[in-house]
Amino acid sequence: MLVQEYLDKHMLSWRIEDAVNATVRAKTPDPILFIITYHALFGAAALFGEEVVAVWWRKVRKMSREGLGGAADGGG
């Protein structure tokens, strides 16, 4: 399979661009963690429903703004 076919089949270009744009909008101090979590939450939406994921997403955005220390010590 050619690279472009693979990218198109899995919509990777769009997904990566979307995650990067969300990361820039969030101005997160840990962009890689944010991107990984962003994709994980969208995958979870299919399993748990969008309402549950929306709550998780708000927590992730809050943690990304405060840094991981706030969540680890019970602040998240």
Structural class: mainly alpha
Query: Which percent range fits the helix content?
Result: over 70%
Rough outline: flat
Main beta sheet:
none
Radius of gyration: 14 Å
SS elements, strand count: 0
Mean pLDDT: 79
Q: Beta-strand percentage?
A: under 5%
Low-confidence stretches: 70-76
Count of DSSP-assigned helices = 5
Q: What order do the SSEs take from the amino end to the carboxyl end, as H and E? A: HHHHH
Transmembrane segments: 32-57
Keywords: Membrane, Transmembrane, Transmembrane helix
Characterise this structure.
The protein is an all-alpha fold. It has a domain at 29-76. It has five helices and no strands. The chain has helices at residues 3-9, 12-26, 31-48, 50-66, 68-72. Helix 2 crosses helix 3 and helix 3 (31-48) runs antiparallel to helix 4 (50-66). The termini are far apart. The model is unreliable at 70-76 (pLDDT under 50).
Offer a few descriptive terms.
76 residues, mainly alpha, disordered C terminus
Task: Summarize the topology.
Layout: H1 3-9, H2 12-26, H3 31-48, H4 50-66, H5 68-72
Helix pairs in contact: 2-3, 3-4
Transmembrane segments: 32-57
Keywords: Membrane, Transmembrane, Transmembrane helix
Task: Provide a brief overview of the structure.
The chain is mainly alpha-helical and 76 residues long. It has 5 helices and no strands.
